[in-house]
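S.,

As promised, the coenzyme A run. Input:
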Amino acid sequence: MQTKIEKISPLSALAIKNILEVSQNGTDFLSFREKLAFANISHPEKKLEWKGARIAIKSALDCISLPYPGFVKDEHGKSFPMDGYGFVSLTHTKGLAAAIFHKEMPVGIDLDYVREKVVRLGPKFLNDFEMDFLGKDPVLHTIAWSAKESVFKCQGKKGISLKNNIRISPFTLEDKILDCKIEHSEYSDHFYKVKVEMEGDIVLTYTIW
Ligand SMILES: CC(C)(COP(=O)(O)OP(=O)(O)OC[C@H]1O[C@@H](n2cnc3c(N)ncnc32)[C@H](O)[C@@H]1OP(=O)(O)O)[C@@H](O)C(=O)NCCC(=O)NCCS
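Predicted complex:
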């Protein structure tokens, strides 16, 4: 997937980075706590992914002229700006990292490679109605998986099940904005619009407002 930095609105931006391309970039911009967290990651690949995601969020913030505040995780694993202003979501996968920031609204982002096996995993993250309209298409399944992960990250709380609580309305490969919602939980009737971008075998999804 092409690397990019995109201003979605004056309040929101996203960035996609090639992890290898940014592997030599400095990390001076990180907060003290983040530098410690980074130093504690022992797995080399995980370390590069973690760094790539922070470089992505730095680029997104630069794009809307906001300073890098440093980010901390809550008890669910979701990152929040240390200055308390705005919302962030991060994703990283083999070779790529992406981040989205919104000054006022929660956001979620997810990157995935299309894999045949995602169809077999369908019963774990889809209900019967969703499995019916997705058929056996691995691309549609990957989009559905990714969109649900983006919604999950946007709401941020553990205990929300992709299969039982996150619903996705029927869509085709032509649809670039999907309708999703959370149901049967204390966050019921939260509605989400999820943007879909595809390049080759990579699917990027993120929540929009
Ligand atoms: C937490 C989760 C969303 C991470 O997704 P992933 O595909 O493994 O990894 P990604 O690279 O896309 O995202 C990783 C980032 O998610 C973020 N994250 C972790 N927990 C989060 C949460 N509760 N809310 C929002 N974001 C979260 C972190 O920033 C993390 O990056 P970091 O470790 O560098 O800070 C995922 O593991 C998960 O729990 N999914 C839903 C649960 C589920 O139902 N799964 C099984 C269905 S079969």
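Residues 44 and 195 are 31 Å apart (CA to CA). The longest helix spans residues 44-63.

- D.
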